[in-house]
Every structure is written in C-alpha cells, then in structure tokens.
C-alpha cells in the first residue's frame, strides 16, 4: 500500500513538471503604429517645367494690323510656402519665382508692307492660396489661385521703323496640382497654372499708340519640396 501511494505521488509530480515545461512563453505582438504624417508646416523647394500660350498683337492707326503667334519655352524656379491641416482639408499659401524664355514672333503682310511683332517673358512670379484635400495621409490634391506678376518685353516693325518697350505687369493665375509626401520631410508635386499678365501698350517717344500685346500662357511643372 505504501509503495502504491509513493508511486502515485511520483507520477503526479512528474506529470505536473512536464506540464509546466510544456508552457511556452510568447512575446506580445508589436503594436501597430499609425501613420501620423501632417501637412502642417513650412516648406521650400525647386521646380522646372514648360510654358506655352498664344501671344496677340493688336495695332492702331498706321499700324492697324493684328497678329497671333504661339509662344513656348522652358522655365525653372523656386517656391516657398506654409500649410495648415484641418482633418483632411489643407489650407496654404505659396509664392514662387520663375526664370525662363517664353517667346513668340509674328509677321503679317498688309498690302506691300510686312509688319512684325515679337513678345518675350523672361521671368514671372506668383503668390497664391492653395486649398487641398487628402484622400490618404500622404497624398494631396489641390486647387490654387492668386496674383501673378512678370516682365513683358515687346517689339514691332512697321516696314520702316522698329521700336520696343517693356514693363512689369500684374495679373492673375489659377490652376491645380497634386503632391505626395515621400518621407516626413520630402514631397514631390506636379502642377498646372494658367497665367494672364494683362496688356502691354506700345507707344513711341511721342506718346503715339502703335498697339498692345497680350501674352497669356499655360504652365506645366514638377517640383520637389523640403518640409520643415
């Protein structure tokens, strides 16, 4: 009887030890960290692109001819701005300055005379508001619009005399774009803008009005920003 009780006790003890050894301790699964990227903050960046449009020249009096010509050229520049994020809505302001060579030439034959006109935009800038929406944290689409300014230089030839004039004009710009945050500090964007700097009036030294040039243009560009 004593031997039976002792055997049972030894069997129970070994079974309990085996069960304890069989318990495997597992490390808890790592917690999932949500993407907490925010568009709020300032940024600065570079851009490059292509511009094109149709320059229009309207003449007066003895230069009473009109001409149109396609204008195009590459451009590049810098931009800086600041965004505020409210849930999925982004409100921001951006300013940029562009250098380039947007140029057109036009010739019109009227009777026995060939008239010529040329227009150039070598630089322009904009200051715009941006209103964006983020369907996902790191991707934003936006509309933009504001003030544009730039220097228009125009020249004309009436078959005998030639003259030129330049002036810095102020107009408007509107457009849209998309931007993606590659990292918490680097974003890539693509953007379209329509820009109208108004009219440049061409007068000679005596104040005689020969005509006016209107040079609206379209811009498509890509850029990279560094977000602070």
UniProtKB/TrEMBL annotation:
Its main location: membrane. The lineage of its organism: Bacteria, Pseudomonadati, Pseudomonadota, Alphaproteobacteria, Hyphomicrobiales. It comes from the Bacteria. It holds the Pfam family OMP_b-brl. It comes from Pseudochrobactrum saccharolyticum. Gene3D superfamilies: 2.40.160.20. Residues 6-228 form the Outer membrane protein beta-barrel domain. GO terms for cellular component: cell outer membrane. Keywords: Cell outer membrane, Membrane, Signal, Transmembrane, Transmembrane beta strand. It is found in: Cell outer membrane. This is Outer membrane immunogenic protein. Residues 1-19 form the signal peptide. Belongs to the Omp25/RopB family. SUPFAM superfamilies: OMPA-like.
